[in-house]
Amino acid sequence: MALTVLLDLRLKAEAVANAPAMLRDILTGTRAFDGCLGVDVLVDAEDSSHLILLERWASAEADSAYRAWRAGAGATELGSLLVSAPQVSQFEIATDI
């Protein structure tokens, strides 16, 4: 079953200007990862330091494999731009509603 993941990011004030370039590089790998159906970046209209990454995955297993890769060989410096750890929420489509 497909999975939608929201990754809630809070950037350091001094990182807002440089974050788009780093995110473009990071998301190239994310979008190419097996099972990734797409990633959109949402910027808070009132606070440009608040981003939501809307990720769509073919399955929970594909998302898990991606998270494991990012924790190991695919690790990035994204954490250096953040004021706190990203908040991750996973959602499945409710087909009975």
UniProtKB/TrEMBL annotation:
A GO molecular-function term, please? monooxygenase activity
What InterPro entries does the record tag this protein with?
ABM_dom (IPR007138), Dimeric_a/b-barrel (IPR011008)
Query: What species does this protein belong to?
Result: Cryobacterium levicorallinum
Q: Which domain of life is it from?
A: Bacteria
Q: Which residues form the signal peptide?
A: none
**Listed SUPFAM superfamilies:** Dimeric alpha+beta barrel
- Record-given protein name: Antibiotic biosynthesis monooxygenase
PROSITE patterns of this UniProt entry?
Answer: ABM
